[in-house]
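User: Sequence recovery, please. Input:
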């Protein structure tokens, strides 16, 4: 019996095996068998929760036989999505539709796609049998990052004739490596906080720089302190409310309490204005820095253009002198004409570069004026905030003095005041700690950029 079987995983090229070569004895009729099988990839996808899901695309096979009863068959078996088997598909020469196309969809909450079996055909007679699939294509798309696996295009054939058994597999496969930075859009990496980038890098088995882990520890400690600050501020607000309620029963304290409230409102407004002014000057300073860099580049372009003009002018002068000495030289005339054209173009380039530099100079001057104005606004806002702080401190001191007098006769008020004083001290201590910790932080933007580059280059 003649029998040919080809089983292929992920390969590229063309596979063809035939029996009945020239000079061989003629095979016995109706004994040919040819089988071709292609095992498709198994894909593993890890969802955002860290759970792995497997998609097994199965095996596509073609068989042709004239041994016994003539048979031609094509089938797809073993397809599974996350442990759930999809129905097998097969067609043979006895099927009602022996020729056509067939689609196998793959769909779930985390992966979508399918397999397309285009141009299949099966036929059989007592002496000949053929199973052919013109093209097997398919793809899988996983969300939410839109990474995609393309299976390429494959053809598969099994034929048997009185003299030959043939199995043929044609497929396209392009080798290569995909960097994680190509799969993750830049805005996804840019939007991840430092701690998430560190977690991602560690999950990929990367060595995270010690400067990054140190910064994460610093940021974690700072966040803990900020949480304590928030809690203390909430407690202080509640304690002040309780103290105000107690003092409201004493008519002489009502005006002092109102003075503290008004001063605190003014201080909050002044600090908000100062913060806005500082943000504005930072933005305008960044614009000025960028314009100054552009102006420096434009000045370099003017210098280069001037050098080109000088060189071209020197060439024209030299050729003019040579032509004066040999006025009948056609070559010198041609060279002079070309040199004059070069000089004209260099002069035009110089004028353009000078215009660009002049325009940028105007923009730099305007930006410098804007930054100077912003600086004045910041200075004024700082003075107003300092004055508001002084007013608030004076009002609070007056209230504290009055509350101390009341506390002599009212232990409840005294306890409330002690709590406010204690919480205020704690709050100030935490503010000092946060200020010191923030000043000691490294350039987080630089650390983010290094981590993004490290993760983006993972293949």
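Assistant: Recovered sequence (459 residues):
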């Amino acid at each position: 019996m003649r029998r040919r079987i080809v089983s292929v995983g992920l390969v590229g090229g063309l596979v063809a095996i035939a029996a009945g070569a020239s000079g061989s004895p003629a095979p016995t009729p109706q004994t040919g068998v040819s089988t071709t099988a292609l095992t498709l990839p198994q894909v593993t996808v890890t969802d955002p929760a860290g759970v792995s899901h497997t998609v097994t695309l199965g095996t596509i096979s073609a068989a042709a036989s004239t041994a016994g009863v003539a048979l031609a068959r094509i089938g797809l078996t073993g397809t599974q999505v996350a442990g759930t088997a999809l129905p097998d598909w097969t067609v043979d020469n006895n099927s009602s539709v022996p020729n056509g196309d067939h689609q196998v969809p793959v769909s779930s909450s985390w992966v979508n796609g399918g397999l397309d079996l285009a141009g299949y055909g099966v036929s059989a007679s007592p002496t000949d049998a053929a199973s052919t699939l013109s093209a097997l294509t398919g793809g899988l798309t996983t969300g939410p990052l839109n990474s995609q696996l393309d299976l390429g295009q494959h053809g598969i054939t099994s034929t048997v004739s009185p003299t030959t058994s043939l199995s043929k597999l044609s497929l396209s496969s392009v080798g290569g490596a995909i960097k994680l930075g190509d799969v993750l859009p830049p805005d996804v990496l840019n939007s991840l906080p430092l701690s998430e980038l560190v977690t991602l890098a560690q999950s990929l088995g990367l060595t995270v720089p010690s400067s990054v882990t140190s910064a994460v520890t610093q940021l974690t400690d700072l966040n803990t302190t900020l949480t304590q600050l928030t809690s203390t501020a909430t407690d202080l607000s509640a304690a002040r409310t309780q103290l105000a309620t107690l003092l409201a029963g004493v008519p002489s304290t009502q005006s002092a309490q109102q003075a503290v409230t008004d001063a605190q409102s003014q201080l909050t407004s002044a600090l908000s204005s100062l913060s806005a002014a500082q943000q504005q000057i930072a933005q305008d300073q960044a614009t000025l820095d960028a314009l100054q860099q552009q102006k420096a580049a434009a000045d370099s372009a003017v210098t280069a253009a001037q050098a080109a003009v000088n060189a071209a002018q020197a060439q024209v002068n030299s050729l003019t002198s040579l032509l004066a000495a040999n006025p009948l030289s056609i070559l010198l005339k041609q060279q002079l004409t070309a040199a004059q054209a070069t000089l004209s173009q260099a002069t035009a380039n110089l004028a353009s570069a000078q215009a660009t530099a002049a325009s940028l100079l105007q923009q730099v001057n305007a930006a410098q004026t804007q930054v100077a104005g912003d600086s004045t606004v910041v200075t004024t806002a700082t003075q107003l905030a300092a004055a508001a702080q002084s007013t608030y401190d004076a009002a609070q001191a007056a209230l504290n003095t009055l509350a101390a007098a009341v506390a002599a006769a009212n232990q409840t008020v005294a306890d409330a005041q002690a709590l406010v004083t204690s919480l205020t001290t704690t709050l100030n201590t935490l503010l000092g700690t946060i200020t010191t910790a923030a000043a000691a932080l490294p350039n987080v933007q630089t650390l983010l950029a290094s981590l993004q580059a490290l993760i983006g280059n993972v293949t």
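The chain has a mean pLDDT of 76.
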